[in-house]
Each structure stands twice: as structure tokens, then as C-alpha cells.
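Complex record, three chains
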Amino acid sequence: MREVITDTLVIGGGASGMAAAVECVERGCRTILVEREESIGGVLNQCIHNGFGLHVFKEELTGPEYAQLFKSQIHQKGVEIQPDLFVVNIDPKRREVVTMGKGGCVVYRPRALIMTTGARERPFSSLRIPGTRPAGIYTAGVAQRFVNLYNRLPGDRAFILGSGDIGLIMARRLTLEGMKVLGVAELMPHPGGLARNIAQCLDDFDIPLRLSTSVVEVRGRERLEGITLAKFDPVTLQRIPGTEERVDCDTLILSVGLLPQNELIESFVETEPVNRGVKVDSFMRTTHPWIFAAGNNVAIYDLVDFVTLDGKIAGQSAARMVRDGFLPEKRIPLARSEQIGTLIPSFCCVEGQPFTIYFRSKKTMKKARVSIGPGIFETVRLGIKPSEMVDIPFTVKHLGKLKQLGLTKIEISIKEVP
Amino acid sequence: MEKRGLTCISCPLGCDLEAEVTADTVTVTGNRCEKGVVYAKAEVLNPQRVVTSNVLVEGGLSPLVSVKTSAPIPKGLIGKMIQELKNIRLHAPIRIGQVLIRDLLGTGVDVVATRAVELLPTAQSGPSPIPISHPIDVCVKL
Amino acid sequence: MRELLRVAVIGAGVVGSLIARCLTRYRCEVHIFEKEEDVGWGITKANSAVIHGGYDDPPGSVRARFCAKGNAMYSSLSEELGFELKRVGSFVLAQAPEDFPYLETLKAQALDNGLSGCAILPAQKVRDLEPHIADTVLGGFWCPSAGITEPWMVAIGAVENAVKNGARLHLSEAVTGLVTAEGSRGRRVVALKTVRGEYPIDIVINASGLWAEELSTLAGAYCPPLHPRKGEYLLFDKFDPPLVRSILFPIPSSVSKGILVLPTVDGGLLLGPTATDLPKEAREETSTTREGLSEVLYSARKLVPTLDPQWTVKTFAGLRPESPQKDFAIGKTEVEGFIQAAAMRSPGLTAAPAVAEHVVEEVLRRECGYSLESNDRFTPVNPPFVNVSNLPLEEWEKKIETDPLYGKIACVCNKVTEGDIRDAVRRGATTVDGVKFRTRASFGRCQGGFCLAKIAEILARESGRSLGEVKMRSGRTELLRGRVRE
């Protein structure tokens, strides 16, 4: 068993982890990046489609290309990469991270820990859809892995449940690579993914999008033989009887949500109750002063660019903590109004640097007023959709206003305006 | 006069556009920037797409290399492009940014690799293969 | 040199596998025939995994003879065969004053059946042990000897041990016919036909679960009429600390023990089963239904109101055989050499070790009169399946020194390494499910999201086949269809 003391330890070498690691090492920290797979890059390695980097690099890149830009920086700047290493346990009292790999057990003692462990896909088996349990049912990420990394198609005729981005991307991918994609069903009355993906992945290939529809039964003893769709009320989300429709297919692809993956820390840091994402403040710091987090294990982002930006903040904050030994503690909670779903961060550090508030609206609004305060500022945004995160910069000026008003919490609300 | 509704894909805002097409004009409304006008006109008259896919690689650490067109190609050529990709066989190593097909189907657009594929190490191989951690020149403009 | 007695055990579920193991204590030729591609894939795979206390069986019934005895045998069996057993205890919960006389009946039955340590506890004592039960609980009948296990691991361990002691395992080999002939003592078994050929055989032990009646018909032997009874289940996520520590039973209905709430050996929470009678032919009808799953949730919440369906990790259904007598059918038949170990409805899993011993010692040796010499080379112990991550860190490290694959994680949720998966394949897993059941890979929260491709890769590599040939379980269950690029 070896012990390694380091300034910063980053767990998870995906988009947020790579960005955080670069920031740390640029600020003079000895930075170790631990990754359980053979190479870093995370899901970017299998996302061979483009659309990454529009914000951060002002250019459309594919996933592997986006990842490569960070991989190059990581190597050039001297981040120590430890691939094929698995974190067995984190002891919050002793501040120890126990890992196991081909070389045996290594216990890390970082001064700052950055958790960038991403998300997992909601599995089909948890949806309680009645019927059989045949072969041929895959979450979209698993299907993507088989297609792009293993050179294998999951089936011949597919139906997709869930119009989240990954489902839409796979609708196009499976069609391009020779499968027949019969349609996409979405329980909600609005699509789950980005509008550009509806256009590029479904409309381009005449793949029908069935809103307010879901799968209510699965058939087939050995291999999937078919599914039954039914319509659901757009408001109550109750099934409408008599709307059943049988579809014959041998593959069912699920894109029904991503869930933050925080097994290693959820027993001791605060997580938000609905999706169990880890709560962070505007320094991307958790409720433990030496543990930071960024990326999909905090909340499910829809653009990797935002993940990168929050990863950078986590890295910068961790480096500052290592250098100064502390970060300003005073923070006040962000509170959401009814119309708001996901909201990051959970706290604002009053003595901190400017940051970005990300949130999702629960409803589609053509034009909406976003209010931060009360009394800090308001802004109008167009084309609000639940599937697309809204990003609101919280600037130095806003921090000043916050202090001046002496608020004990920041309320975020959104309201449709004519 | 034809009216067509489309969603702009130039950026994630995804504005809802409407294009009025007559014999000699295309009028676009609903856009929040110029890119929307450009996109709608192109979609109506000559729709183009950047296409990403895979090509078979032999002797590499991975059976496929992911590829993309270096610029958009006419939408109607997508099927033919996939056929072209099915007909190529490459051999490792592949560099990220390496041009795999020049002037695809006469479009003037290239097909380039979007990741590296290292050589599969064998007993006979002389110098050690380039490890994935080695910085590789990136043929992507920033 | 006298010829060895040739014994065929039909069915490699819990019952058949334990019988086969008992047989190998003696010098005889033992064959286990199983129609599925792996062991324990019938009833054994999909039930509540409960080792019942034995208070529930009417004194004088066949199951009463074997349940408490089998329960007691599980402790040494789990050590010998290396499967997990947790004696978590069970409560039958009273939620109305009129339930108490029933609890008194159970207490009396417990004594009659030879149990000790059972007691009727008042509400507060129950709540001290199980804080999450409903406010309506007025008391409970407590049985400390009840436990939970992994039924398929019992079968796998027993089969491995039987094979080590000389038995031959025939997987994917369904029995299609039984040849009988007129002997001096009436009709007797002479041969067995399977999908692969014909085997001369002296004894057939029918442990074929849902197919017991059909198999008996092939021999012309009597079996009580059986029909499948479906039980649907919900499996919930792990909670730390666990929501429920012991097995919670409601007051049963006339049909079944009711819908339980109980922990699983790896920390999850199981709800179920329902009890839906199906027609005879529906022996493979294991689909879940909307009504069934709703019923499970509704009934389970009567015992533990805070159960939230959002915690569901998995839903499934299993079948068990039911007969009009509601009892086991164990023993000789009118066909000499054809022995029943059938109609093993609840508490079949619990009774199995006692039934196995009875079939070999009492039925075969004593009643049928076959004298068998001891197998001096019989070893009762089978190495357990241990994932390296369950070892102390120093021991895990030592394993990695012998093989770096023990340091490469494959299943993140349950910390299963590539080395563990490879070992499972070498010990007999030929399908993804085979790997899952032996290692618990894919049993966690992500249900295979992170590890399915890796499991398939290792299966392909170890068997020298291509990825496209890897299957989920029996039949045409290949994961993948073709290549993207040829």
C-alpha cells in the first residue's frame, strides 16, 4: 500500500475533470487525475457527433476532438494521469482517498479533492414498464458505446423512448449506420433535447417524434419482439385508456434521464433531494470545505461547454484553497420559484468571484422575465424551453448589489411575459 | 408561394424560423441573428450538413476511427457518403485530423479523422507505439 | 465388479442440485439434466429468497416435516457450499385486533414443528427493531431462525460440488422421453431420452419444477396436477442504514403468504410476490403486469408506508408450482425407479436440503432398497465466489500481484473486477446472466449501464468467440446484431 500526498486530486477524467485539472496545474498545484477507464475523456470519447465547443472555442467540434484539446493541455502542463484506477472509498474525516488499480492500493491525501464523477443513465428496469425482460433493450449510452467503440449494431429495427439529447443523437446514428429507427416517444408534451437535435436527428431522417406518448408494455420472450405505445394526458401525465398502439421492433433504446453519480460522497456531503446531485456553492465547493465538484454529478447539464466552465471554476477554487489554505465561508442559499427545476449552484459565496447561474424552466415560454433578488437584477430571455439550460451571469456588480441589500437568500424566478 | 417552418440549427438557441419561398426570393422571419437568414435560405434552396460517422481500421487499438466532413456537404449526398465510408479500410496508426478522403464525391470537402487510433502492439513491432498520452498535432482550427 | 447404479436427476434447480450432491456421497453414476443453459434458471432464480422459519406449515403436512429441518441445515450448508445466508429473522405483523388469534396459531404451530425462540411481540418492541413499519401495526409474531439467501448460488454451489464429487452435468439438454419396461416388480425405468440421445438409466429423480407433471407423464407415473402461480416483485435500491432489517410478512390470505417486504443479501429491498394462478401451459409466462406491480406496491405500503416507487431498481416475476394439496410430492411412484421431488411450492427453497437428504437416504436407499457404497473421496466443501473487493485491502492487493485483472474494475456499482468476471466465466458462466448471477455485476443502481459491454467483452475473449455471439441467457438472446463496418 502506497501513500501519496498531493495538492489536488481530481476523480473522473471526463469533461469537467479535465478542465478542473488543467486549471489546478496552471496555478502551480501538484495535480493528479484519477480515471477508472483505460483513457481519459469520459463519454466524449464515444460522442463522435459534433456540436461541442460552440461557447468555449467558438467552433463546432466532435466529442473526441473536444476531449483532445484538453488531453493535450493535460499532457503539456504536467497533470499526472492515473488511468485504470478505481476509488474504493473516501474517508472525509481523515481526508483519504483509497484507490485500487493494477499496481495495488494507493491512498491519496489531497489538500483539495475535486469530484467530477459524472452521471449514469436511468435504466429501463427501474421504469416499472410491465411485460417481459428480453434481450435488445439498451440505454442510449450503452448502444452508443457498442456502435462507436465496439463496431456493433444493437439490432435491426429500433424504437426510442425519451427525446433527451442522447436519444435523438442515437436516432440519427443508428439510422446512418444502417438500422431502421421507427420513432421516438416522449412522455412530456415537449421534446427533451435541444431544438437543433430535433431538426438534425429526427426531421432530417423523417423519424416521427410522438409527444405525450410512452411505452406501456414490452413483448418478446428471448429477443424483443415489440412494444405497446399509449398516449398520456399532457397536464396530469395520466395514461389515456384506449390509445394503445403496437409497434414491432427488435431494439428499444432508452433515453429517459441521467442521474448524478455520487456514491463515493453521498453519505457525507449534502445532496439535493430530487436527483441526488451534490450541492455546491459559487466556488463549486461542496458542504465539505476541501471537496469540490463540477459537471453532471452536480446536475445534468445539456452543453459540455457549461460543464467545462464549471469544471474550470472548481479547479480555480481548489487551487486557491490549496494556496491560501481556505476559501471565504460565508454563503447564502439560492432559492427557486415554482417554475424552476434544476438550479446550480445551490449557494452564493458573498466574498467570492463572479459566477454563472444555470437553471431549467419547467415550462416553455416564448418570452420570459428572469428575476434575481429580489432587487438584484432582472433580464428578459427569449425561447425558453425545459430542455435547454438558461445561463445567467452573476457579475461583480451583482455581488455588490447583493451585499448592499443584505439579503439572506437569493430568489430566482421566471415568469412568462407577453 | 410556399411557407415553411424550420428550426435554426446554427446555435443552441434554435429559433423558430419561417421561410416564405417565391419563384425568385426567400424571405426569412423569426431569426435572432443573421445566421438564421443564411441557414433558412440554405435549407430551402440547398440544405447542407456536416456528417460524422466511422471507418473501419485494421491493426489498431480500436476497430473504428470516428470521422467527420471538414465542411457541410449537400444533404442528399449523405447516403452516398456512408457507402463510400463502408468501402474504405484503413490501417493504424491514424492521427487526429488526418485526411482520409480528399474531395468527397466531388464536393471539395474532405473526410478527416476526429481521433487518433494507435497501432496494436504486437511481438514483432519494433519501436513502441505512440502512447495515447502523447500530444498529437491537431488539424482543427481554433 | 458390480455395475454402478445409474441415477439421473432432472432439473438443476435448488432441489435437483442438492439431491445430486447427496447422491455423490455414494458410489453411483450421477447425471444432472438441465434444459436451460445454466443452473438454477427456473423457479430457483425468481422467488423471495426466504429461508422460512417453519411455523407456517400445518403440522403433519409433508412440508412441515422438511421446512424447519431444512432451515436448520442451511447454516452448515452455506459454509460448505460458500453461499451467503443471513438469519435476519421474520415478523408476521398484526394490524387489527382480530389478527392476534392467528399469531397465536403460528406460535402453537411453531412449537409443534420444533422451533424455539419464537414469540409474539407488542407494537413497541416491533417498532424498536423495525422503525419504518406502519403506525397501524399492533404487534408481530417474531421468528429468529428465518433468513435470506441467494437461491441460485445454492444451486450453483451444489452443482459444482456434485460435479467435483463425480456427477456429470448436462446443460441445454432437455429430457424428451422416458423408456420403461416390464420388470419382475412391475414397470420400471430403463432409459432416458434427451435432445442429444438416449441414456440407459436405473433411477430418475424428478426435480423438474414447473415441468414435473409433464415429466411424470412421460414415465407414466403419478404426479399431482400442477399449475404455475406467478409472483411479481419490485426490487428497490440499497439504503444505508437499511429501511427494513428483517422479513416482514402481512397476515396471509387464503391463497398465499402475502406480499412481503424484506432485505436482500446485498442490501437492497425486495417487495412481493403477488399470487396469480395461470393455466398449466403457461410455464414460461414470467412477464410483469401493471395490475401485479401496482398490487405489490399497494400491499407493501400497508406494511411500510414510506416506500417510494421511485426507488425501484428492477421489476421481475417468477413462477412456482401449485397443486390442489398445497404440499410437496416426495417419494416413490408406481413406476419403479421413478422418484418424485415435485410440487415444491413455498417453502421449497427452505425444505430443499432436508428433502434432498430424505430422497437419497430414506426413499432411494431404505424404501427402494438400493444399497450404495460410500464415496470415500466425497468432499463437502465448495470454494465460494468471492469478489476481490470484498477481501481486506491487503488480501485484495495480493490477488492483484498474482493477476492485474483483479485491479481493473468492471462493475462500478458493486465493485466487481475483470478478474472476478473472468473467474466466473471459467467456473461455468456462458452468458451475461451467468456472469451477473455469480458476481452480482449489473445488479446495482446502474443495472449494467457501465459494465455490460465489458462483461460481453470478457465472455467473448474467454470463450474465443466474437462479441456478436455473446448472449444474455438461454435461447436467441444475442446482445448484438451485426457489425457497423465489415
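Note: The longest helix of chain A spans residues 304-324.
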